[in-house]
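Please, why this fold?
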Amino acid sequence: MSDGFTIELDDAALQRRLDEAAARLADPSDLLQRIGGTLRSNIEGRFDSKLAPDGTPWLPLAPSTVKRYLKKYDGNIPGSLLERTRHMRDSLQQPLVGTGYVEVGFSEPIAAYHETGTRRGLPRRSLLSDDPIAGTLGAQDRDDVLDEVNAYLQQLL
């Protein structure tokens, strides 16, 4: 009975391709950049669709907010929710890629309140996560990230 066997390949082109794949896996910054771009695009789309990462619609303005706006703006509510959140939307940052991670988020602090909601009544109108406490992505975001990973791996082979 044999303990095993060894096959040696003397194929420079194959070895070069395997070395390239290993090098790209050692530094997946291009994959992380693609993942960040995909997530950023999904987040941008949520402003248009008014849907949270889990697919549920954002809640409308609270009656107290409508009342406050009507008083503040002489009986008119200025623009749509999308127009009022333009400043926050414009603060969506380009993905930040580091060693082994990618960050996608906002420079506008109010985005945190939209992500989690507040005790004072601002409902959660999530943009980033399915569950901000657990830090989980919505199903579509997970699928899109997996698609990016699979495409990346396909490219390597």
